[in-house]
Amino acid sequence: MSQSEAVANGSPTAAGMTGFVQDWKSDKQTYQVPWGKAMMWIFLVSDTFIFSCFLVGYMTVRISTADPWPLATEVFALSFFGSDPIPLILIAIMTFVLITSSGTMALAVNFGYRRDKRKTVMFMLFTAALGATFVGMQAYEWSKLIGYGVRPWSNPWGAEQFGSVFYMITGFHGLHVSAGVIYLLIIARKVARGDYDKKGYEIVEITGLYWHFVDLVWVFIFAFFYLL
Amino acid sequence: MAYVPLADQDDPHALHDPHSFITKYVWSQDHKVIAIQYGGTAIFVGLIALGLSILMRLQLGFPDSISWIDPAFYYQAVTMHGMIMVVYLLTALFLGGFGNYLIPLMCGTRDMVFPFLNMLSFWFYLLSVIILLASFFVTGGPAGAGWTLYAPQSITAGTPGSGGGMLLMLISLAVFIVAFTMGGLNYVTTILQARTRGMTLMRMPLSIWGIFTATVLGLFAFPALLVSAIMLGFDLVLGTSFFMPAMMQLGEQSTQDGGSPILFQHLFWFFGHPEVYIVALPAFGLVSDVIATHARKNIFGYRMMVWAIIAIGGLSFLVWAHHMYVSGMNPYFGFFFATTTLIIAVPTALKVYNWVLTLWQGNIRLNTPMLFAIGFIFTFVHGGLTGLFLGNVIIDVPLADTYFVVAHFHMVMGVSPVLVLYAALYHWYPKMTGRMYNETMGKVHFWCTFLGTYAIYLPMHYLGFLGVPRRYYEMGNTDFVPATAQALNANITIAAIFVATAQVLFFINIFMSLRKEKDAGGNPWGATTLEWQTPDTPPKHGNWGPELPTVYRWAYDYSVPGAKQDFIPQNEPGEEYEKTFHTRGHS
User: Fold this and answer.
1) Which of A157, B49, B186, B224 lies in disulfide reach of B270, CB 3.0 to 4.6 Å?
2) B1 to chain A: nearest residue by CA?
3) What is the pLDDT of residue A82?
4) Whole domain around residue A205: which residue ranges?
5) What pLDDT score was predicted for residue B20?
6) In this complex, do B256 and A164 lie within 8 Å of one another by their Cβ atoms?
7) Chain B contacts of A152, Cβ < 8 Å?
8) Å from A82 to nearest chain B CA?
9) How far is B177 from chain A (nearest CA, A)?
């Protein structure tokens, strides 16, 4: 496409408000984004609404219940080798692991665009391993709470909604992480096989979008459920 | 490597024509086949819901005339009728049916951007329909708490179908939402990223704008329904208390307490109100194209119409609690939501004016699609005006839960979208099949449906003013309802049976016309939009032959002075008439 033709078709060559208007009225491609990436973004916005509804529901029942809300610092405390219980230590490690995995994912995307197949695959597998570690620690936390007698319909300390919200929200997030691990493994295998050598490594970035989203959601769950 | 936009990929080497019967007609990835699968399934469940409504009307008009309609069955019929009509018929037919069929054809693409996901969307939809219909056969029958499924009543023992039927309903809704998300992502992404050369956003036909905005609304609104379905399902199966307050149940203190019933209503209506516009916006779009084509005039105020669609879509997320004026909310909420509700009437009224002004001095062809489209303007104005009554808290309080509400929402989101569906089905039937429907039979169908629905719903407004409550199995002895209300109810039932029977004409028409010898031709209406310019009718796999069309003008160049015919297709090169006719902010 020649330059003049591009301008006539409204390609985003202008800056500022004019460029914005051209982006939105342009033909062919809005923002020159390939469709796969656009589709993932739209899906993530939709998924944001799901998690927002879960969190709003949690806040509402926490206000509506008449029973006291259990203290997260005491429930989620862990002692090592007979030490005093350290509040939220497992959650802190889980959060650290998940946020680290965002970093390794970003490296995978970077090496993808540099067409360094070996390192891309390596960092994707590393990310998947960190994700699996997170899910494993979450399973450990679940088993501990189940051991304390926390059930979706009751718990030893107070409002029964505590257990229902905990299992529902962390469960739904855990499913997202597990799905992300499987997604990463599938894409990593296809990268290793050379499926994207001709098409380009866009898909690694799309996978990364999903992965960063899952991390971001965890930050909100961490803040609203564990810290408040 | 440079990214090549989809629209520049003319070479059809990526197109893989299906060979076997199964991949061509059953597990097909072709958007046109998927559209017809979606449409057929939706119309099939719609007929079941129509049958349920007739059973309800028989009970209301002629109480106890059918011995096996007991109160429990009546409530189950109410519930299933409402849910099927709103979600499984209207949403699926507008977006899954017309969205799938028209988006790639009107935008000038070969298919959706992700055809495999599109195919999965239909099969998940079919699964959700099967799960829903299965609930008729479980112990206790289908859910019977009203289509709004208000907790705690919907899952409390004593409500018909509060066990297995309710659970299947919730699972079915969740599967439907998954199906809708897979389809919806395709629709939005295809419209944004895959339009052909020259098809700018402001050259898109209004059908596409309506479907696009409605799909965005769906992607943001259905999550609230999914979450409320998951939480309600946990309350039902696990005994959690998201929506369950402390209460006595069958003489015993319930073990569930501390939940918030109002939370369910908020979540439900945060989905439920945008859902009204998920149905209405595609209808607005389709009817605009039908009116412009058959009035041989450009749509009046195209850009205003686009902005009105977007404004309505945005506002629809801010009005949900007008369904909850009598639920015990803070009165200040009522004030806020009444205000937003009245504001949404502004862009809506603007659209109605523009349709009427499009008809003004047009060269109107009163064929079947046009009759249905004009009929829609009547019923929509009618239902919209009663909406202003109910949007005001002070008028809504006495009218809430009466037949006035039933009449209002059936007029505005039952009859109006269905009239548009018929207009669109008749309008695009020649493109889908290559045959022309029978005009006389279509007109008879229109008049029976249009006049018949008025015979049903006008008297209901009056019943509502009398104070006749909705959702009652029978009236019994009430002081404030005069005995003559029963005569009115009987009349309504007779009209309802007449309208339901008249729909047979539609099915006879579309099936008989398939066998006709005469070819309708590629563009029988002289329409400008791209789907009428395909090389084959019905369009073949890949839609466009070797080269994608190039768009040179907007979708409404009708009756252009000096042109050689009274329409100029979008893909015909030359001066864009609209540019000289309308002032543009930039170009």
Assistant:
1) B224
2) A200
3) 81
4) 33-227
5) 79
6) no
7) 234, 238-240
8) 35
9) 11
pLDDT value at residue A78: 84
- Closest by Cβ to B223, choosing from A33, A42, A46: A46
Q: Do A61 and B260 touch (CB under 8 A)?
A: yes
Contacts A39 to B, Cβ<8 Å: 113-114, 185-186, 188-189
- Best residue in B189, B247, B269, B570 for a mutation probing chain A (most A CBs within 10 Å): B189
Cβ contacts of B1 on chain A, cutoff 8 Å = 198, 200
> Residue B231: which of A10, A33, A57 has the nearest Cβ?
A57
Nearest CB neighbour to B200, from listed A10, A153, A160: A10
Shortest CA gap B114–chain A (Å): 9
Distance from CA of B279 to the nearest CA of A (A): 19
For chain B, the farthest-separated pair of C-alpha atoms sits apart, in whole angstroms, at 82
We report the CATH number of the domain holding residue A192 as 1.20.120.80
CATH code of the domain occupying B32-244+258-581? 1.20.210.10
A contacts of B222 (beta carbons < 8 Å)? 46
Q: Where residue B15 falls among pLDDT bands split at 50, 70, 90?
A: low
Per residue, what are the HEC states of chain A? CCHHHHHHCCCCCCCHHHHHHHHHHCCCCCCCCCHHHHHHHHHHHHHHHHHHHHHHHHHHHHHHCCCCCCCHHHHCEECCCCCCCEECHHHHHHHHHHHHHHHHHHHHHHHHHCCCHHHHHHHHHHHHHHHHHHHHHHHHHHHHHHHHCCECCECCCCCCHHHHHHHHHHHHHHHHHHHHHHHHHHHHHHHHHCCCCCCCCHHHHHHHHHHHHHHHHHHHHHHHHHHC
Non-local CB neighbours of B245 within 8 Å, separated by 6+ positions: A64, B152, B257, B258, B259, B260, B261
Same structural domain for residues A1 and A114? no
The domain segmentation of chain B, as residue ranges, is 32-244+258-581
pLDDT (0 to 100) of residue B395: 93
Cα–Cα distances (Å) from B231 to A69, B9, B32, B373, B577, in that order, read 19, 46, 37, 41, 55
A9 and A54 share one domain:
no
Q: Do both A64 and A165 map to the same domain?
A: yes
Identify the pLDDT of residue B480. Answer: 84
Same domain, residue pair A215 and A179:
yes
State yes or no: pLDDT of B128 exceeds 60: yes
User: Which pLDDT score is estimated for B21?
Assistant: 78
The reply to whether A4 and A15 lie within a common domain is yes
> Does A77 lie in the same domain as A67?
yes
ipTM above 0.95, yes or no: no
Chain B residues with CB inside 8 Å of A160's CB?
A: 240-241, 256-258
Residues A84 and A177 occupy one common structural domain: yes
According to the model, what pLDDT value does residue A20 have? 66
pLDDT in the model for residue A4: 39
Closest to B201 (Cβ–Cβ): which among A24, A42, A168? A24
Please list, residue by residue across B540-561, b when 16 or more beta carbons sit within 10 angstroms of its beta carbon and e when fewer do.
Answer: ebbbbeeebbbbbbbbbbbebe
Residues A99 and A113 in one domain: yes
How far is the alpha carbon of A220 from chain B, nearest alpha carbon, in Å? 17
Q: Which residue has the higher pLDDT, B105 or A79?
A: B105
Q: Which amino acid belongs to residue B579? A: K
